[in-house]
């Protein structure tokens, strides 16, 4: 049985999606990933959300802490992981990567957002950690 997301997680997710639509409408496709990342942070912070960029997350394995573990593009409100792309074709490994990020960090909700698509709705993928 899949655990439901909290209303706070759902609300943060909606704000991420809405901000992605706003940015894509204003800027269009074809820019560098970093541009979309900076703009998404700005839009989310305008909504009073706490956003961390390029966050290093250590990994614990077999009692050892690896500081070079993960790097998240964005972590919103310390609850939602966001990975951004600006590419023509999404590599399936990126989907596996965000699922792994959710599992290893213990966060429940994540988004893989590709801004380089004809319609932004086709570039937004939502992932839920059910473990």
Shape verdict: globular
Low-pLDDT runs of 5+ residues are none
Element order: H for helix, E for strand = HHEEEHEE
What is the helix fraction of residues, given as a range? Answer: 25-40%
Report how far the terminal alpha carbons are from each other.
Answer: 10 Å
Structural class: alpha+beta
Largest sheet, if any? 5 strands, mixed
Question: What would your notes on this structure say?
Answer:
It is built from 3 helices and 5 strands. It has 131 residues and is an alpha+beta fold. The protein has one domain (7-128). Strands 1-2-3-4-5 form a 5-stranded mixed beta sheet. A hairpin with a 2-residue loop joins strand 1 (51-61) and strand 2 (64-76). Helix 1 packs across helix 2 (33-46). The chain is globular and about 45 Å long. The chain starts with 6 loop residues before the first helix and ends with a strand. The model has no long low-confidence stretch (mean pLDDT 92).
Keywords summarizing the entry:
5 strands; 131 residues; 31% strand; 3 helices; single chain; alpha+beta
Task: Summarize the structure in short.
With 131 residues, the chain is of the alpha+beta class. The relative contact order is 0.19. It has helices at 7-27, 33-46, 92-105; strands at 51-61, 64-76, 80-85, 109-114, 124-128.
List the helices and strands and how they pair.
Blueprint: H1 7-27, H2 33-46, E1 51-61, E2 64-76, E3 80-85, H3 92-105, E4 109-114, E5 124-128
Parallel strand pairs: 3-4
Antiparallel strand pairs: 1-2, 2-3, 4-5
